[in-house]
Design brief:
Pept_M24B; Peptidase_M24_C; metal ion binding; metal-binding; Creatine Amidinohydrolase; Creatine Amidinohydrolase, Chain A, domain 1; hydrolase
Length: about 600
């Protein structure tokens, strides 16, 4: 019999823990690859608690349980998770390990799945637990899986080659670069576990995770340029085998852990930011010398070659035309008060789907009306769905996956009738000014994203307001919409990558915002490419940004009197370029709408 209530599921988990001799268990949102987005088979936290966010965890003891989320999910966690069953705890003020120390009895045995947690999380938890005589115990089989009767199976969709014309480099060339690094460092092999890294190294894509075209698999790359791919046999086609060639040995995914245990005497590198604790434990128990080092695919994957750069431009142009059709549809239909958030998101998917090149959305569309727009990571569902009120702000953050590029765009628009308030216009104009300041920035080569973050916030700060999320994240090439290592955010903040030097070829988002709780939210997001600034007489190399996203911005939310001549010139240049790129793809009323929205300010 299937358990329908979250209370019944929690009770069943506690019964299972008791059978295992455990006093508690920690449940993260994670899979065996420490992915940001995970397949339905790995959505254990959602099944147990009802929480649908993309970041969070839970700790369950015999008589108490808690949910741990950061400020992005303060409202959502309270809407989705029963407060009678779980305490609400804020990260980073506390953590599952700290909470367990405070509430578990001395000598308690706390279980964890070593294939879902990072090795550093395990080590830090062990140190905290030791102070109270609490033991952290790796489980043999996840106890949630034992009670989740209708748990989905991992996807068996076929893995497919990613054409070298889109990738810009062959897999053999990438593997040779990794082999050179291994030899230089004195390593015999490296374990590549991040799904987008596996996809990049092998020029392979898949359909195993919503929104991200990756295949569930691991790679063991060797210093001689060969590699072993561990993947379910059902996913391997003759086309893929031919694409991989003789230098890549294809093995069953089930052989991965035994293969790690068989590397006795070898020096093997693994990235603690991407490889779960179970991998480190299997290597160490098998007698390998384990070295913690960065995934060698992460940085070269982030630095897009010329083919990937052009692919992004082409994908953005295609995507921009779809978004223009959508914004015209919103402008004409939303003022009726009859269009709801889910219908709007579905309509945008329909417009994107007019392109035969669309493979998927790049994340779940944030279709946010009125007060929902004040939640930066709002996710509409049947329970939260509302109609877009007339005379309000509507925010839509969305993206598409195309073979030549991954898109991510946010537009904030006024839904009539009437005019936006003076406060709305002021806040939107300040967000716009920050967006422009960052877009026009010139900075020395290898400047960190953290050094640029204040440019996007400075005009908001002058009014005594700010936003709580980062300003920019990396974006992949037909891969993850959130890609490291680069990031633009406040130095010393919670986001990794802030100190990563920016280099030519990196793609990032530029997305400052403002959020007034319960009332409205604003975000303006384009993707940008780091390029040579070509400054005459510069002393050393300087970089700047090339804007990749071209879709009109809502002039009804802009106070021209607050803008400098430089900012107005940016607006007019941006919209002239937008018209130039998109007009050839549009006709009729869509083209007329574009022409109106792209007139000089």
């Amino acid at each position: 019999m299937l358990m329908q209530t979250h209370e019944a599921r929690l009770d069943a988990l506690r019964t299972e823990l008791d059978k295992c001799g455990l006093h508690g268990f920690v449940i993260p949102i994670s899979d065996e690859h420490m992915s940001e987005y995970v397949g339905s088979y790995a959505q254990r936290l959602h099944w147990l608690t009802g929480f649908g966010g993309s970041a969070g965890s839970a700790a369950v003891l015999k008589d108490r349980a808690a949910m741990f989320t950061d400020g992005r999910y303060t409202v959502q966690v309270r809407e989705q998770v029963d407060g009678k069953l779980y305490d609400y705890e804020d990260v980073p003020a506390t953590s599952p390990a700290k909470w367990i120390v405070a509430h578990a009895p001395k000598g308690a045995k706390i279980g964890y799945d070593a294939w879902l947690h990072g090795v550093e999380w395990v080590e830090n938890a062990q140190k905290l637990f030791a102070k109270k005589g609490i033991e952290l115990v790796p489980v043999d089989g996840n106890p949630i899986d034992a009670v989740w009767a209708d748990r989905p199976q991992p996807s068996l969709e076929a893995a497919v080659p990613h054409d070298d014309t889109f990738a810009g480099r062959s897999s053999a060339d990438k593997r040779a670069e990794i082999a050179d690094w291994l030899k230089q460092e004195g390593y015999d092999a490296t374990v590549i576990t991040a799904l987008d890294s596996v996809a990049w190294v092998l020029n392979m894509r898949g359909a195993d995770v919503d929104n991200t075209p990756v295949a569930l698999s691991y790679v063991l790359a060797h210093a001689d340029g060969t590699a072993e791919l561990f993947i379910a046999p059902e996913k391997v086609t003759p086309e893929l085998t031919k694409h991989l060639g003789n230098a890549v040995r294809v093995r069953d995914r089930a052989d991965f852990q035994p293969a790690l245990a068989g590397l006795e005497g070898k020096t093997v590198a693994a990235d603690p930011n991407h490889a779960v604790a179970g991998i480190f434990q299997a290597l160490e128990q098998g007698g390998a010398k384990v070295v913690r080092d960065a995934d060698p695919a992460v940085l070269p994957k982030a630095i897009k070659n010329s083919a990937e750069q052009q692919g992004h431009r082409d994908a953005q142009a295609r995507d921009g035309a779809a978004v223009v059709k959508y914004l015209r549809w919103i402008a004409e239909n939303a003022p009726s008060g009859e269009v709801d958030e889910l219908t709007a998101a579905a309509k945008l998917r329909e417009f994107r789907g007019l392109s035969p090149d669309l493979k998927d959305t790049s994340f779940d569309t944030i279709s946010a009306a009125a007060g929902h727009a004040a939640l930066p990571h709002y996710k509409v569902d049947e329970d939260s769905n509302i109609k877009i009120p007339p005379s309000s702000i509507y925010l839509c953050d969305s993206g598409g996956q195309y073979p030549d590029g991954t898109t991510d765009i946010t537009r904030t628009v006024w839904v009539g009738p009437g005019e936006p308030t003076a406060e709305m216009i002021d806040r939107n104009t300040r967000v716009l000014k920050g967006h422009i300041e960052l877009d026009l920035a010139r900075f020395p080569d290898r400047t960190s994203g953290g050094a640029l973050d204040a440019l996007a916030r400075m005009h908001l700060w002058q009014a005594g307001v700010d936003y709580g999320h980062g300003t920019g994240h990396g974006v992949g090439s037909y891969l993850s919409v959130h890609e490291g290592p680069q990031r633009i955010s406040k130095p010393g903040g919670a986001f990794p990558g802030t100190e990563t030097p920016l280099q030519e070829g990196m793609i990032l988002s530029n997305e400052p915002g403002y959020y007034k709780a319960g009332e409205f939210g604003i975000r303006i997001e384009n993707l940008v490419l780091v390029v040579d600034a070509k400054i005459d007489g510069s002393e050393g190399k300087y970089l700047t940004f090339e804007t990749l996203t071209h879709v009109p911005l809502d002039r009804r939310l802009v106070d021209k009197s607050m803008m400098t001549d430089r900012e107005i010139a940016w607006w007019n240049d941006y919209h002239a370029k937008t018209r130039e790129i998109l007009a050839p793809q549009l006709e009729g009323e869509d083209l007329a709408w574009l022409e109106r929205e792209c007139k000089p300010l």
